[in-house]
């Protein structure tokens, strides 16, 4: 029997994300099962769930596999029809052979990733065949199977007149432990889908004001406190860097302070870059692919989604989320290259390039974090194109002043399959933005190269004294051309699951 927990809608007020839909009894049902390739790819070995199913259908499953060529490759599937009265379609997908050597240099838990790839391949095959009610075996790791099943069965299609039916996914042959783990994976994947949806929403439909409304609609029903501060509040806080970016747009800036408190301790603080559209300001971007800058608030989407996941998992922790929200547009009121502005901590900044705006809004948010007495601070932003050049979409670039925090984050990235990679945070880069005669800092380096590193060095100037800190640059992994086998084209929501895992472990 299938686990009763199935992927469910999570945003009722906001035209809900449909990771599942309900169907009548006449809907065709499908089942995803696994098989390992034999030695030298000859013969097959069914997983335990597939063996039980094969016995139930008197050996017809293995017979059909043999008739199909008897060759199972990892991530490839065969779909068979009419083997079982309850499951009209059965997709058998290859799982990477368990005895294959593991490559530690990949910084990824191969066993978990193999399960994700297999489950997604089966779900996608059945979905493409028109099967919308899908049960998936655990492959020995129900949490990982749930993650990729829910991620691969979702698509952003909010503004299409005719929407594709999204499949419902649930767990096959579930005991209590597997059901619990499936629900964990489902909540983590649904959190990432929230980030995907927010990041892909067109900028005219997700202004700073609308984003603030969405945050309340998503999080308030979970008992999370969402405070929305306006421009006057920011002026009182002397957030000159944050406010300077908003000057070019008619859309008013917003600053969110979100509290998830289920433990009496100093909070972990997450800061997410919330530029809901980035045209570059006076230093305007090229027109080609500028539409992708609707996702320049992916950092904000990620920290919001992380809170959703923590709440659904009922993690006992204390987390504060800060989200500065602006549009960065050119106009007669916009900040100009060469203008000097002042951050909340009093430091003067020459804005040599108005397209280096994310670090300006983060600077004031990082200064504000000092008032929260954090255990540590983590900021996340689509900050530099240089990070895409450095790492592509393989991993999130991370800068940190704490070896232990980075190592913990790296371990979480290995578990989730959404990896991170450490970048240098040397004083060498600080000199490139701080050696100026007339002001404290430039918002860009005077030299060439190392753009991600000088951006991180800039942010370090606003970290509360003696505070452990992580800066995540997600410009390379935000999308839209995803290469992960369980993500469709579009904004990725990465690395939401890594942050959830990291904070859960930090809370323990």
From TrEMBL:
Its EC number is 3.4.11.1, 3.4.11.5, 3.4.13.23. Pfam families: Peptidase_M17 (PF00883), Peptidase_M17_N (PF02789). One of its GO terms (cellular component) is cytoplasm. PROSITE patterns: CYTOSOL_AP. GO terms for molecular function: manganese ion binding; metalloaminopeptidase activity. GO terms for biological process: proteolysis. SUPFAM superfamilies: Macro domain-like, Zn-dependent exopeptidases. The keyword Chloroplast does not apply. Residues 353-360 form the Cytosol aminopeptidase domain. CDD domains: Peptidase_M17. The keyword Protease applies. It catalyses: an S-substituted L-cysteinylglycine + H2O = an S-substituted L-cysteine + glycine; L-cysteinylglycine + H2O = L-cysteine + glycine; Release of N-terminal proline from a peptide; Release of an N-terminal amino acid, Xaa-|-Yaa-, in which Xaa is preferably Leu, but may be other amino acids including Pro although not Arg or Lys, and Yaa may be Pro. Amino acid amides and methyl esters are also readily hydrolyzed, but rates on arylamides are exceedingly low. Keywords: Aminopeptidase, Hydrolase, Protease. Cytosolic metallopeptidase that catalyzes the removal of unsubstituted N-terminal hydrophobic amino acids from various peptides. The presence of Zn(2+) ions is essential for the peptidase activity, and the association with other cofactors can modulate the substrate spectificity of the enzyme. For instance, in the presence of Mn(2+), it displays a specific Cys-Gly hydrolyzing activity of Cys-Gly-S-conjugates. Involved in the metabolism of glutathione and in the degradation of glutathione S-conjugates, which may play a role in the control of the cell redox status. Belongs to the peptidase M17 family. This is Cytosol aminopeptidase. It comes from Sitophilus oryzae (Rice weevil).
